[in-house]
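Please predict the structure of the following assembly.
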Amino acid sequence: MSKFNETTRGVYLITVTPFKDDGALDLASTDRMVDFCLEQGVDGLTILGIMGEAPKLTAEESRTFVRQVLNRVNGRIPIVVGASAPGFASMSELTKSVMDLGAAGVMVAPPPSVRTDDQICAYFDMVNETLGPDVPWCLQDHPGATTVQMSTAVVLRILRNSPRCVMLKHEDWPGLAKLSAVRAATAKGELRRISILTGNGGGLFLPEELVRGADGAMTGFAYPEMMVEVCKAYFAGEVERAFDLYDAYLPLAKYEQQAGPGLAVRKYILARRGVIASDAVRKPGPKLSALDIADIERLIARQERKLRALA
Amino acid sequence: MSKFNETTRGVYLITVTPFKDDGALDLASTDRMVDFCLEQGVDGLTILGIMGEAPKLTAEESRTFVRQVLNRVNGRIPIVVGASAPGFASMSELTKSVMDLGAAGVMVAPPPSVRTDDQICAYFDMVNETLGPDVPWCLQDHPGATTVQMSTAVVLRILRNSPRCVMLKHEDWPGLAKLSAVRAATAKGELRRISILTGNGGGLFLPEELVRGADGAMTGFAYPEMMVEVCKAYFAGEVERAFDLYDAYLPLAKYEQQAGPGLAVRKYILARRGVIASDAVRKPGPKLSALDIADIERLIARQERKLRALA
Amino acid sequence: MSKFNETTRGVYLITVTPFKDDGALDLASTDRMVDFCLEQGVDGLTILGIMGEAPKLTAEESRTFVRQVLNRVNGRIPIVVGASAPGFASMSELTKSVMDLGAAGVMVAPPPSVRTDDQICAYFDMVNETLGPDVPWCLQDHPGATTVQMSTAVVLRILRNSPRCVMLKHEDWPGLAKLSAVRAATAKGELRRISILTGNGGGLFLPEELVRGADGAMTGFAYPEMMVEVCKAYFAGEVERAFDLYDAYLPLAKYEQQAGPGLAVRKYILARRGVIASDAVRKPGPKLSALDIADIERLIARQERKLRALA
Amino acid sequence: MSKFNETTRGVYLITVTPFKDDGALDLASTDRMVDFCLEQGVDGLTILGIMGEAPKLTAEESRTFVRQVLNRVNGRIPIVVGASAPGFASMSELTKSVMDLGAAGVMVAPPPSVRTDDQICAYFDMVNETLGPDVPWCLQDHPGATTVQMSTAVVLRILRNSPRCVMLKHEDWPGLAKLSAVRAATAKGELRRISILTGNGGGLFLPEELVRGADGAMTGFAYPEMMVEVCKAYFAGEVERAFDLYDAYLPLAKYEQQAGPGLAVRKYILARRGVIASDAVRKPGPKLSALDIADIERLIARQERKLRALA
């Protein structure tokens, strides 16, 4: 099995959390979703992230969902669990619980309350202390969701201070310059090699990020096969083919990436593909209109035509 | 016993959560703090608010602390519990649990993600649905902490749509005009009477707010007797005496109200007064310097002189 | 000549402000840029917007630039000038000055200081009073730049209260639902017909917005012919062709839309196309790296291949 | 005459900008206000700051007002002019213009768009370049107005990089720790001596800030004599008397410090004291209600009683 460490490459899919129409956790769909991801060739899964509606679950539901995913995966690929929490006591409790269940590691984003470079770095010193020497973790750099802007200098400081931080989830936007700067720091011997998976919604800059040295993607998209194939083509040296594949999916990826409605779009398509039984999103959450669905159906039809032309 | 309802008057103290020096919950100090509050004459307690370091507790610690306070109070005064949560499933679970333990009601603030009037009102429609017809609750209007700015029109809409919202915790700043507008709406028959307790840190505008029609204070301060005595004097018609008492405490209240260090100041004074055993604040949290402590000691000495002059 | 009013359709290009390498205004390039826009078939120009680096010009430079553009256009198409200002005295002064020079109207966005529905509407009442009955204006709804979130209800209130507001620059993101709601209000007779031009960077949702009833685009892109051709095809009933054209440009539009570097990308391409002499951006502003330029060149080459295939 | 440099001590009053009832600049009141400030013993004036409604003036009105103040002062005390601007071209133009008129220096705050340590420092490098070697300037650290949080490390970096920055306007809140840290840096030889004037509204922490090493205050208050007397007493070694004086004014200072209504309170009192002819505030701006005025009158009456007791 692939490992969650500094050399990780490929696609870690951010999964949704499937609900039934009445809002209850849907464990059968959870199993089906795991199977689907494995069939599409993803290299890992990330669960209980923002797009997984984690804050809308009770603590007990979170545990149930994590357990279900880990059981179904059964060690075939690594599972990373979102462990951002308003306090270190909860972060510690959650981390211990999911590592005991078999998670490969956790992912942590900074809370909105930290602003200056020193505040951000001090926060991650406490994260290090909280997670301890045995838990590999991923630093999530996602100012769009957290409002925390980490300069390249801060990211480098955190990575240097955090021996167990093995991965950067690169989700700043625009962020290509930061990605290049982190890779350059390693090239100059100023930073050990770390894994960088990119997370701009649906992989919206995936090929440009691969060119800059990303190891792959950690994000969600209703067509994970796009990210798998683009990475495969790129790492096989077929750069233009990677771009061609990606371009075929871009119009729909762009549509699915809309903050807010995006999650409903993703669940609609996953339900349409038979992966999950219901596209229910818990409140407060978006609902699709008939006009939204017409948009999606047109984009899917166009996408299928383009893929046939590429095949 | 006084009730938590639309007619509530007096002082609901926002308590701290006492920790031992090692950061563990200090249940003996919790009991002593409850006794102290009752001796000072407060009319109710509010626990697990922001100044109670609620987000830094695990779910289990929260339950333990609530249980300890409720047991010690033993029905002598109403206890309100902060129930703001990132999702409605957690809010429902927490509310059910504390009401079962004997809480008088809960307090809810909007999440930072709601911005427009319609978003805020829709959020509280879901709060109503979540809390149901049996749980009286307090609307917390605290833009300084939540970043959500509720206009007077929005506060009135929420109060009209929420039959079980019995109290407004008025904590907008500056907010005197809003307070007057809510009272005027009731005077004009546009809104049923509700209780308004004010919450500007340490009661920083308490006498002005009483003049505008506030029913008292819901906030924290290391000298709750100030708020109790100011309210008593004011409601007894001794307006200038209410201002005199308040003015004697204002320099220290102002110092304790500093966002960030304020909680450490409060715990320092409570420990100094023998109420809690340790002034420990959980990380991430403020620490006092020697200069801070010198400031506090000077302000306490000056305050004691003024109170002797007033006696 | 086409008019700037409630029936306006087509493409209003947000122009850049050309500088020489030393940062001085480049009036020769300004003329060439105007000629280029007219050749590409745009229906109007919008100058002194955010992407025009308006805040980096002195008052005198702004006047010079406006005069130069108006002289070169010489009445062939309408010119709209950004008139957002920190105070109404400046807004009034600027508006009078550009209308006297021959502008067709102005564009106003709300300042970051207004938050609640009532604050936003009160602000635009003052805008109405300031601009008076003779100046047609465009309401810019761009929360990404202003941080002001206007709900559909607020947009409708402003449009109803503003008899001279003839156009909505629709730039909220995601904003398709709001666009449909404004059109529905007119269909139901709740709002007079207004022009809606969309502004998501480089027309990033242009075809979807046309489907929702937009009248065209008001945004910047180094290939204005894309927006012109997409609108023409769409309004001629060739919907799939409109999407095909758009898809050919999308990868580069997406790249140019990056907040920050985007302006440098746009000026780089305009200089490469011979429209402006220098790609200089005034400080503080972005600079392109060699890696950025390699990205752009690849995307241009790919775009040209796709356009040949479509021709 | 006292100088505006690294050794400046005392009170620089942030003045209001007087308007007539119809909103026009009131130059007669401007003269009277200057005379009043000189009579009260202030050591300098700061004009065109936020509380001076600078953004609501046209460029021409700003020049007129600056000229009027400088003429009336006629070199008796230094005048500092707010020069924060959205672009460096405007900052340069404004600075040159006011220095030519006889200003002692300018004051600059960072724009809301800079967030990370590196962005803030890079911004002030450009400020240095823009202002040049001949203009002494004051760094305004006021996150409440700018949203820019500058850590102590960043303030020290800016001061080290800026040979002509002679003063820190210390307005972070809470900010006592930062003030102590800047003074400690000088004590340790890590930073040259600079002047620190504090600016928390109405001098709300003035005595505590003097204890920490502040050189005085740069802020506005309708009773500038309070700040003058507090500083004199403190620097004469009468520490408790400084606190006593301050405490007599604190309830009204607190009331005047309310963001929003505060400016209307200040102008109301200045008009009541005969300093300015009208309390008009330009739109958008606050208006006082009858209840507000009743509050102010009560606080003034109480303050006068306390001052008589102290005399």
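The CA atoms of residues 80 and 286 of chain B lie 26 Å apart. The first helix of chain B runs from residue 27 to 40.
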